[in-house]
């Protein structure tokens, strides 16, 4: 063999080895990226279907969904006692009473009147005389939820409605008060008060206000059950859902879940082709006849074997699919070698 032929053969073998390694590496990186994403997502309830592919009519059993969009309120909450209704997911009534409270600063105790949202028992004061509070509230605080809240075509489970973030003040309308309350309450800014003079409240006066979760754009991560999104009760993270204000990408909702590789099918095909090209160059470097089918079988067998090992113990179906490709590649390669020999 001439020196030139020897150098040429060595060059072909070196190039073939590099392409073979490139194909094997690309295949391994692709499957490892998918595997890391899958394992991390499972901690939060399962594989994730992003908003663009999620709809209540799709088969999403056992998966998690990220959906973003404006909240749609079908049956707004209503505070019937005060005649107040708002087109929001959640309406909260807050009741305060003007009461004595004890202030202790470095052992120095003094008393002052202030608005407090719960009854204060004056018998616990260091000096109760002259600071007695009225006792239980005649009107209680309350929370009212919409009969149906949707986002992106999905209904929200009550647990997700209660988890909706954000707050805004809802101004009362004194004209809507029932007659029995209109005689006692008047409007003072964003409050209804029983004070004869709102600027000079007296002991026992009541102040009622309302806050609401706004009908805003949110991103919801949860498990679909038909057309309803609900927390994944079996999620290893112990939560199984997330709700954030605004349109958030999956990496914002689940920052500990790595982004899966893009163009997975193309990357897999390219990995096999690179490995096949490397195998072909190795065959040529050994002065064997160029056999494209043998080279393709060798490349597919190598990439399939690596992928099958990576998915072993994580996804039986995917592992068997890659193992089948590896076995098929090995069988075809053995057949081509026997035929050539």
Automatic annotation (TrEMBL):
Topological category with respect to the lipid bilayer: Multi-pass membrane protein
Q: Does the keyword Transmembrane apply?
A: yes
Segments spanning the bilayer are 269-285, 292-313, 319-337
- A Pfam family assignment: TMEM43
Quote the cellular component terms of the Gene Ontology held in the record. Answer: endomembrane system
Q: Keywords in UniProt for this one?
A: Endoplasmic reticulum, Membrane, Transmembrane, Transmembrane helix
- Places the protein is found: Endomembrane system; Endoplasmic reticulum membrane
Specify the protein name: Uncharacterized protein DUF1625
Organism expressing this protein natively: Fulvimonas soli
Print the organism lineage.
Bacteria, Pseudomonadati, Pseudomonadota, Gammaproteobacteria, Lysobacterales
